[in-house]
Design a protein that fits this description.
The protein has about 325 residues and is an alpha/beta fold. Helix content is about 35%, strand content about 25%. It folds into 2 domains: about 1-50, no CATH class; about 95-120 and about 140-314, Rossmann fold. Strand 2 (about 25-30), helix 1 and strand 3 form a beta-alpha-beta unit. Bound molecules: adenosine-5'-triphosphate (ATP).
Length: about 325
């Protein structure tokens, strides 16, 4: 293995996925941090030459690459205070601006993975690491993770009696942005977001999710996401229980929220939402606590057609 570094430390980019390494491959790799270098090495890069500009001597083809937003390495987790292991070595990298989808049989560990990412107290990480925006996520409590830009929409959003949706959203916004926006100002900020998710402003006066239908709760989750302007939205079955029109609205709203900087990690059982979003993305199949296969939307189609047996046997 050959590694060469230019000096001073180069402004380097690493190919996001490096999917097809073989013993004879060599890559132009730019290495801004030891962390990113570790990632390349883990992925089996055998020869790496770093140069600080495409024109520098000894270089190869420059690799334009987006920034890594989330990196999960060999993540293992058990149910708290037990030795029941649910996550058995999950690896996943999400770059800025990407849409990732996790599919998998019931009970394969998808929601657990999502919950571990946001620091759910039911689980204990026993091995591996999670780096979010260059920071060690495992050292942050759930609130810090949220302030850092992680958002999770749960399968069954909780009701919060006695707290109006408007107050809740404003408090969440203030906490995330470390500001103190007035109710009037906030309302003006909120109006276009309500329109984007096609939500009736009357829902703002109701208590959070109290008495909301399943679809209304999901729409409210997207509103929260829009308000918090999260860097990574983790959406656990955001499409479940939605009628066809609502599904279209959610897809449109999600697309409207996408920027080159933020990313989405969706858990779903159906490829419909992916079709509606209609953007290139990654589909991962989780099986027994690990990501077994990764591909594009065609992988989701394969599952839809032949079930998971086809994937497992491949
Ligand atoms: N807090 C917990 N206590 C006991 N078992 C748990 C707990 N959390 C997860 N599990 C178990 O871990 C396994 C994975 O659950 P998880 O909810 O992550 O699956 P999933 O892939 O999201 O399933 P689904 O598609 O049905 O939502 C299941 O067998 C589940 O019963």
């Amino acid at each position: 293995m050959a590694l060469a570094f230019s000096s001073p430390a180069p402004r380097f980019a690493v190919s996001p996925s490096i999917p097809h390494t073989s013993p004879s491959n060599s890559f132009l790799i730019t290495v801004p941090t030891p962390h990113r270098l570790r990632r390349c090495l883990r992925r089996g890069v055998k020869a790496a030459v770093a140069v600080d500009s495409p024109s520098a001597e000894g270089g190869g083809l420059p690799v334009e690459s987006p920034n890594v937003l989330l990196e999960v390495n060999d993540l293992r987790a058990v149910i708290k205070d037990t030795d029941k292991e649910i996550l058995k070595g999950v690896n996943l990298t999400i770059n800025e601006g990407e849409i990732h989808t996790i599919m998998g049989r019931n009970g394969s560990g998808k929601s657990t993975f999502a919950k571990v990412l946001v620091g759910h107290p039911d689980y204990e990480v026993t091995k591996g690491d999670i780096v979010f925006k260059g920071e060690n996520l495992l050292e942050m409590d759930p609130e810090e993770r949220s302030h850092a830009g992680l958002f999770m929409s749960f399968q069954s959003p909780v009701e919060i009696p006695g707290v109006s949706n408007m107050d809740f959203l404003r408090m969440a916004y203030n906490a995330r942005k470390k500001t103190e926006i007035s109710p009037i100002e906030f309302f003006h900020f909120l109006l276009p977001k309500l329109e984007a998710v096609k939500m009736d402003p009357r829902f703002l006066d109701r208590n959070v999710n109290e008495g909301f239908s399943g679809g209304e709760k999901k729409r409210n989750e997207i509103l929260q996401l829009a308000v918090l302007e999260a860097d990574l939205a983790i959406l656990d079955e955001i499409d479940s229980g939605l009628d066809v029109d609502a599904l279209q609205d959610v897809a449109k709203a999600l697309l409207g929220l996408m920027t080159p900087k933020n990313s989405i990690l969706m858990i779903t059982h159906y490829p419909t939402l992916l079709d509606l979003i209609n953007k290139p993305g990654f589909v991962h199949i989780m099986q027994d606590g690990v990501i077994k296969r990764t591909g594009d939307r065609s992988l989701a189609k394969l599952v839809e057609k032949g079930g998971y047996a086809e994937i497992s046997n491949a």
